[in-house]
Amino acid sequence: MEFFTDDDVKTALPWPRLIDELRDAFAKGVSQPLRSAHPVPVPGEPDATFLTMPAWEAGGKLAVKILFIAPGNSGRNLPAVNATVMVFDAVTGQAEAVMEGGELTARRTAATSAMAASFMARKDAKSLLIVGSGKIAGNLVPAHRAVRDYENVKIWGRNPDNAKALANRFEGVGVATDLDAAVAEADVIAAATITCDPLIKGKLLKPGSHLDLVGGYTKQMREADTDALQRAAGGIVVDTYDGAMAEAGDLTQPLEAGDISKNDIVGDLAELCRGEVTPRKSANQITLFKSVGAALEDFVAARVVASSG
Question: Is the Cβ–Cβ distance between 290 and 250 less than 8 Å?
């Protein structure tokens, strides 16, 4: 059985290939039961979450990711997401590979968002705003740059020093000091935070913008307010219906309040990649992609990494 470090994973998953592989897999489909999630109390801090995410292709491979998400790690200067991924032969059950899951999770998450934006964002989008300054936010910059030719890229973070440090890792990326002003200017906004208080105000979104909500993965978390969801109504796509409708507070809260309806969600990534839905129907329409993460994404990335050994 081969072992792959985060550095090995990064080398094996260049953005164009990963985005193409994800597009193909969402169109074709794999078996992916709803992930199993368990809260883990942490004294004096927000609860951690333990998850398992399996997916497989009949007669091919099976991949399972095991995660421990610890929000309190931000105060310890440690990654919030700790993960390991294993790959098995789906016929014999033989374990073939194990890999560190931090880089894989960040890259597949960012690549999925960029893949959605390749369908949903305007072709002439020139300005990109990243909201957040963690590991996934850092991957959103090159992932989105792989599908659009942005002239202006900015990063906003609660901690300005962290945002500046992240921006300095990339050529031509600046720091946004005023979030509201940056939201009002951006053609594409990609948020990767774990906030429960919406940061993005829908009234500020410019006509034709695309909003990518990556960070919230529980019913309590929200990155955008209800106005944003209402302005994007009819142009909303989710990664998977089962996951988003069970876990995404950005959707479940306004749905339960009656502020939007299920009809405002026009499709999932499988339908989008098969060309069965068209969320952007005009240049001025606001579109929104909400992801909570799907085991298919881990399966695709892990299969590519395992084949590189």
Answer: yes
Are residue 283 and residue 303 in the same domain, yes or no? no
| Residue type at 135 in one-letter notation | K
Its sign, for the CA torsion 55, 57, 59, 62, is: negative
Distance CA(12)–CA(211), nearest Å, equals 29
Together in a domain, 151 and 278: yes
d(CA 176, CA 174): 7
Which helix (DSSP H) or strand (DSSP E) does residue 276 occupy? none
Q: Yes or no: say if 14 and 306 are a contact pair by the CB < 8 Å rule.
A: no
Same domain, yes or no, for 132 and 100?
no
The model's pLDDT over 148-186, given as tens digits with 9 standing for 90+, comes to 999 999 999 999 999 999 999 999 999 999 999 999 999
**Model pLDDT for residues 78-132, shown as the tens digit of each residue:** 888 789 999 999 999 999 999 999 899 999 999 999 999 999 999 999 999 999 9
Q: Supply the pTM of this predicted model.
A: 0.91
Q: From the CB of residue 57, how many other CB atoms can be counted at a distance below 10 Å?
A: 18
Query: pLDDT over 70 for what percent of the chain?
Result: 100
Residue 284 shares a structural domain with residue 300: no
Is the pLDDT at 74 greater than 90, yes or no? no
The strand ranges marked E within the chain are 2-4, 36-40, 48-56, 61-69, 81-89, 95-100, 127-131, 152-156, 173-175, 188-191, 210-213, 236-238, 265-268, 287-290
CA dist., res. 292 & res. 268, Å (int):
12
